[in-house]
Write a structure and sequence with these properties.
The structure holds two protein chains of two kinds. By secondary structure, chain A is mainly alpha-helical. Chain A has one domain: Serine Threonine Protein Phosphatase 5, Tetratricopeptide repeat, CATH 1.25.40.390. Chain A contains 14 helices and ten strands. Chain A has a two-stranded antiparallel sheet. Chain A has a two-stranded antiparallel sheet with strand order 3-5. In chain A, strands 4-10 form a two-stranded antiparallel sheet. In chain A, helix 2 runs antiparallel to helix 5, helix 8 crosses helix 11 and helix 9 runs antiparallel to helix 11. Chain B folds into three domains: 98 residues, Sandwich (Immunoglobulin-like); 784 residues, TonB-dependent receptor, beta-barrel domain (Maltoporin, Chain A); 32 residues, no CATH class. The chains are: A mainly alpha, B mainly beta. The interface between A and B is large, with 119 and 124 residues.
Amino acid sequence: MQSFSFLQYSMKQIFIPALQRVIVSAIAMCGIIALTACQSTVFSDPNAPAAESASIQSLITGTEGSMRNAYNFYIYGVSSQGREGYSLDASDPRWLTEYIAGGFDPAGPFVGNIWQSRYRTIRNAQNILDRAAGLSGADRARLEGFAQTIYAYQLMVLYDVYFESGVKLVLSDDINQPFSTPAETLTEIARRLDLGNTALSQAGVTFLDPANPNNGFVLSSGFSGFNTPTTFARFNRALRARVASYQGDNQGILTALGGSFLRADTASMALGVYMPFGTGPGDFVNPIYELPTAGVIRFWVQRDFVRDNPDSLVDRRVLNDMSAFGVRTYTLGGYTGSRFVTLYKSQTDAAPIIRNEELLLLRAEAYIGTNQTDLARADLNLVRRAAGVAPYTTTNFTATNAVDRLLYERKYSLFGEGRRWVDVRRFNRLNSLPNDQTGDRIVRSFPRPQNDNPGR
Amino acid sequence: MKQRFTFALCVLLLGASIMAHAQELRISGIIQDAKDKQRIPGARVLVVGSKTGANSNAQGEFRLPIVKASSAKLVVSFIGYKSKEVIVNASIDNLVIAIEEDVLKTSEVVVTGLASGVKRVNSPNSVGTISAKELIPAPAQTVDQAFAGKFAGITIRQNTGAPGGGMSVNLRGTTTIVGDGQPLYIIDGVVMSNDAIQGGLDAITEATGVGSTRPQGQPSNRLADLNPADIEDVQVLKGGSAAAIYGSKAAAGVIIITTKRGSAGKTTVDVSQQIGYNSILRKAGMYQYQNSQEAVAQFGANINIDGVNYSTASLLAQNPFIDYEDLLYGQKGLISETSIGVRGGNERTQFYIGGMARTEDGIMRNTGFSRYNARINVSQVITDNLNADIGVSLSNSVSNRAFTGNSNGNSVSIPYALMFLPTFVDIRQRADGSYPSHPFNGANPLEIIDRMRNTEQVNRAILSAKIDWKIITSETQELRMIASGGFDFFNQKNLITSPIGTQHERANPNSGQVVDNRAISVFSNVFWNLIHTFNASEGLSFKTTGGLQFENRRVDAVLSRGQGYATVTDNLNGAAVVNINQFITPRYDRGVFLQEEIDIDSKFFFTASIRGDQSSAFGNPSQFFWFPKVAGSVRLSQFDFWQSLKGTFEEFKVRASYGQSGNQPVPLAKYGGLVQNNISGVGVGLIPPTQRGNPNLRPERNAELEFGVDFTLPNSLLSVEFTYYTRTISDLVLLNELPRASGFANQFENAGTMSSNGIELALNINPIRTDDFDWNARLNFFTTRQNITQLGVSPYFTGGFGAALGAYRIQEGFSPTSIVGSQSLTAGSFNGTVVGNAIPNFTLGWSNTVRYKDVSFYFLWDWAQGGNTVNLSRFLSDLGGVTVDGPSAWAMRGDMRRGRGAFAGNPQTPWVEDATALRLRELNLSYNFNRDVVYSVFGDAITHLRIGLTARNVLLFTKYSGYDPEVSNFGNIAVGGNIEVTPFPSTRSVFFNIALGF
């Protein structure tokens, strides 16, 4: 048979021997592989435990713990926009260009970090809800009561920050999941809080049943006083009151506060639920805390903030939280501070989620909204007395200026807790906030994080 | 015609030898250089068709054992020379064989299989090679530094100028987006670790969290441990087709390093000493304030230092300009390098012993690098059929790398702190030894240099062994078993200390920090090959290789961080708080390999191979992935019809090759275990990782088609190697950005296809070659174009610090190294605008060696045209008020960035800069003392003596405003490099050297 030939060799001369040899070798090799293939290339994750094997306690603690992630982004971000205080931190100029000047980069961490961290906590809360679905009775109710409440609280933080940009109400990989409207978000938060509240009422006396410890849990010191289903429900209702205030539902505020831990007493302003910080292994410290003796301070009070308080020499809210620590000024990028934020006195000080002082202010707000000016004044005066400033009288507190007074008290009472920007926004006074430099702007919402935006 | 004639003659002679079987030949003589008649020791003389052979001794003399034939064909071979055939018909004792230097390297053997090679003239692939002489004309701190500009297709990026290395090597562009884009390194048959293990710098600088997928700790890569002087040659399989034989780890290419062997004859000793210094290659400059109004506008009327307000105007009056760049980077660091190489042995045992001691100080005080190497290679002929090679290499590398790069928190990075340090504010050490606080940054850079340490120590042993057993040898057949493999073991210790009392530690509630990182890396592998050669007839031969590969890699790193000390210490004991992280990375691979090579009359060369790999890194660790290859070359100049063209093109070859190779997914990416988020007093908290595991990961597959034409002109005037390649990388592993509303940040997925193509041109010119004057030039030119052709996930931004500061865009129809900026976003959505690209338009390397009598002069230029680097140092120094070009330029860039003023509504990213650079990489001027002169002075005591001046990184011409456009804040990241955040500046080194042999 003739075929194309390379020089003096036919294709047959070249390729047949080659093929024969390859086939013989392949058979031999397969035999050897069969002998050696038993070597194990299979092993489980050498560095981290699988989700299925995690205990309920570890998921609960992890959920509580991860609420603290990106707390500095959240506080610096909303405090800057609320013109309470600025992070003049040279280590990233974007603390200034994004958070103060309002030039947000949707694709950057200053927009995305808060969002990502809250959804990570929500994912863990969802993991707990998934576990709960396999249980029944009080075992199930305990988990649902905790997880729904935290889920709702995380959505509330997202609402505060992303407001009209919207949030996603469904945990999903689908980038086309819609962004909700503010009203939809509030409805969902209220729904989850109410589900949690109902579950808590069926959760028994304690979160940890000694007879059945694997399906129970203990909470951290941040929930001290709120660590049984009954007391935890008071926290749930406190959050529900805040949601009602967002919805402008004054009766809803009062109803929710009825089930909360509100205490009308000047000594109980700090009573509430906190996020604890610590120095143990795998824990972390309060990122807002700074040693007052440090050579460079990051978190400075906005320059007009103290000036706007006529009682600043006596108001304990100013004296405690905004220190001058001698004559000291700091200028970075044209922003100058002369007092810095001393909200926390140590690196392990807990950060509040919601506390009694806010509940009193919420009640005052509801009273103002329902024209019960005297009751409102009484609550505000409780707050003022606690701060060491003179109470309002019937002459300087009227139905006309009640909202101004309320916002003023909230401004100083809840300083550094992420409330100011949200307050002026919901009372439509964003343009009353100052800008330190021309060109700076205050936004109504952080933009949609680029990674979640269908048009990314 | 000639071939046929030779063939006929051989047949005739063979026939004759059978008839006259009683005859014997006694052959001895000398081997010498065809040009200068110098005798050549160590050349190999072999009788074709037998195992009989001999090596020439120190005087170039050889004596063959008695050959039982009436005629013999001898082949003489020696590295760097063309091999030569001589036919001997009668006994002779003064045979002079002159061999010719292979200036254009046509007869060097290049890799075609796991245990086989072919002469370059037949090679179907473009294989880059670097010989010992070309590798280090000027001393290099690390071997990879010395690769730059040496052959077409290689891109070297120095991620950081810190002592001890940190280099990225890319062959033919980027082969992956998030995987390991670094080539596989094989040294003497051992899979060598080139890992860059994070040393824990991020823990101190807070640039990113410990364990981040995009760490910024600027680690050294472990090629730094090799002694460049031990290397005999380096072969580079550039891409998917040539590297297919290495299967699932070879998509980024393979770099095969062979160390020096001994040689029979007189023991020779080569000693060299280099003395030199490091200095900063280029300063970026700092702004000098012109008047107090300017300073007050920037910093306010007062500047607070250590709680005291100073008037800005008076500070400026006291110190108009302090050259902090000079204070920080002005050191001329002494470099000393002592090297010794000993070669010797007899016919059965040969040894090479190499040693090096290199110490150097960096351009910052308290920085530096030292490395001590020892190597012993022994080759032993055990029986006539059995050879063994054993190599042992030990090294100790210590580097003091200082604190550079990105930083958060208290900004404990020297160049970072500099970006906020106005040149009129004096924070130099006071007479009492204390340091003023930096008023605009958490740490004082001068104090960091003096008081903090970032050290790394690596002890390493590489053991290699190779057994070459000729199981069967006959006239027409040979069966060999070649088994090679070994261990690569090292332990790395990083110690980072930040003592109490420094400015940044005073701001730290738990004052004082010690980071102690310990990593143990053990790689082991066995390559086991059976090779069958069958000479079907004269000129037609087959070679079949079957092999198995077992590779185990395991890295176990424990990072401990102590905080809160009462005293200055470098011990974890005494810490108030200790945090520990452990990362174990096991990878177990199994491979099987089969190859057939066919050589037809040295005219055609074909090869086909297939490799199958299993790996624990794959989602399914027991599945085999197969990587085939076919390649062929036609040496047209061997055909009869070419004879008339021989005078024009002495050699002419066309070649084509297709092959596939793989890239393993990022190790452990298939897992997604929970991570800790503990609360003190309650205990362990677990939360989902930001990166979700994906149990379905497959290796990336790089399918490459390569064509080429190689030719040489007569008289070794010019050789040209031209290659075009096109490749498609499918199953591209992406770190897909998930919608964060999934609860996760990202996930590795096989979800894309990328295509690339490029041309490579290598010229080797020897225009003048006389006894006195010799000029040899090499020119490498290459371009790379890449494009993402398919993407299975929504397009996304990656790398950098967010789009507004220059990030990368992964999207169908775009290059994977596309850089985007503020102008690329409209209302949060990508609008298609690309601002730059990390890959240059073309790269050109041009080296020249000119020798006149005893003086030789060498230089290497390296030119990268185009490409961009994102200079975020400038972003910082604009805010800090120190960028050299002054307030109006800062304001202009501020307006650009924020879309104000002249740029209203049109924000830009001014930090993306042109990275075009022309560098004089290497320079060498040496004087080789004439042999007679040496003899007349030293007699037999010294055989050669050379002195010289050498330099590395001599000149840099670029418009780039930073220290060096060649930089990466994120280390060896495949896509996401070329981003500068206050790096360690690049250095120039200059040496005087003396080398002698005896």
